[in-house]
Amino acid sequence: xxxxxxxxxxxxxxxxxxxxxxxxxxxxxxxxxxxxxxxxxxxxxxxxxxxxxxxxxxxxxxxxxxxxxxxxxxxxxxxxxxxxxxxxxxxxxxxxxxxxxxxxxxxxxxxxxxxxxxxxxxxxxxxxxxxxxxxxxxxxxxxxxxxxxxxxxxxxxxxxxxxxxxxxxxxxxxxxxxxxxxxxxxxxxxxxxxxxxxxxxxxxxxxxxxxxxxxxxxxxxxxx
Length: 224
What we know:
Blueprint: E1 2-3, H1 34-38, E2 42-44, E3 65-66, E4 76-79, H2 81-86, E5 88-92, E6 95-99, E7 105-112, E8 117-122, E9 126-135, E10 145-158, E11 164-165, E12 181-184, E13 209-212, E14 216-221
Antiparallel strand pairs: 1-6, 2-4, 3-11, 4-7, 5-6, 7-8, 9-10, 9-13, 10-12, 12-14
């Protein structure tokens, strides 16, 4: 359970522009959607279950993979945009809360007051990849940066591999380090942790792909 607002009304970008004026307005094309762009996908954790339920013999009720419960109350959590819009929500004493399935949680930041720094913990066998841009070789190109290469990425944050999956043919790539350039399996679904730089808060203006380790085919080059 996270302490999350029910609407984006009155919300502002990092530059101070009000964007949350009417969530019913739809601005959509092939690459974006207004509702998803303004959805709250980051909130503090308010409550947790005692443990996760994983059972290969009970796939309808089980979490899809075996992993540890790594979130703690008070952590700042980034989670799935669809759950942000559709999760069960309750309101109590003027505060709103949403129930987010653990499998739809991607990463938390945990503040350590003594050291005055944020620990980053990536969950559910996910890693955060920096997109790689192709080189624009056109003689008319003003900038050498071309389109994003959808087959590769650079590992910037990663967590523990999952122990196993409900589907026995799934397994997590084990050996990863920050800075590794990795090749993704064909048809890997790519989506951003945060969709727009003007709303991003995880790491400045940097946007990262969210990819599970099982989608990594190989390491093309090791990080420094």
